[in-house]
Amino acid sequence: MKRACPATGGRLGSAVAWEFNVLVVANLTATSEELLAALRDRAERGACRFTLLMPRDGAPDSDARLQRALEAWRAAGLDNASGRTGDSDPIVATMEAWDPMQFDEIVVSTLPTGSSRWMGIDLPRRLAKLTSVPVQHVVSQPAAELHWERPAEHERYGLLSPLAAALNRKA
Fold first, then answer.
1. From CA 149, how far away is CA 145, in angstroms rounded?
2. Calpha distance 83→67 (Å, rounded)
3. Which terminus of the chain has fewer Cβ atoms in its 10 Å neighbourhood, N or C?
4. By three-state DSSP, how is residue 53 classified?
C-alpha cells in the first residue's frame, strides 16, 4: 500500500515518501541467490515491503520453512519482510492473499522451465492477467545437492558389447 510520509502530515507534495508492497510467491526457491538479488535490486529502486507467500506443498514443516526463508531474507538485508503460507495451488494461494489495496506488484520465483511445475501452468503470465499488476519472474536454480553413486557393473562381451546392451535393455 502506498503511504504518505507522516512528516508532511499526509499532504501531497515533493516531500511525500512512497512505500510499495510486493507480494513474493516462492516455495523451493524462496532462499535462492537469484531471488534475493532480485529483491535487493527492487529495494534499491524505492522503499518497499515484501510479503513472502509460500504455497504449502504437503510437507509438515511448511511453517518452519517459511520462518527459515524469512530469516535468510533478513540476513540478506531485507528487513522489511513478512510471510504467510497458502493453499498448495499457487494460483489459489495468490488469489486468496491478493488485495489490490495492499499489494502493488508481484514477484514469482520458479525453478527453470522443464523442472518447474509452476512454469508448466504459466504462473507468472496467469497472475499478471488475474491481478493486472506488474509481475516479475525470477528463474532460480535449485539448491545444489550432490548425489553420487557408482554405476552398475556390466558384463563384458568384447566386440559384442553394443549388441548385448541393446538386447539387455528393459522394455
1. 13
2. 8
3. C
4. strand
Lookup: cell for 89: 495451488
Domain definitions of the chain by residue range: 6-167
The C-alpha cell at 83 is 510471510
Classify domain 6-167 at the CATH topology level. Answer: Rossmann fold (3.40.50)
- For the stretch 106-121, pLDDT in tens is 999 999 988 889 999 9
Residue owning grid cell 511445475 = 117
In three state form, how does the secondary structure of 9-35 look? CCCCCCCCCCCEEEEEECCCCCCCHHH
Q: What are phi and psi of 84, to 5 degrees?
A: -155, 155
Structural contact between residues 7 and 14, judged by C-beta atoms closer than 8 angstroms? no
Which residues have a Cβ under 8 Å from the Cβ of 105 and sit 6 or more positions away? Answer: 20, 22, 23, 133, 134, 135, 136
Give the chain's length: 171
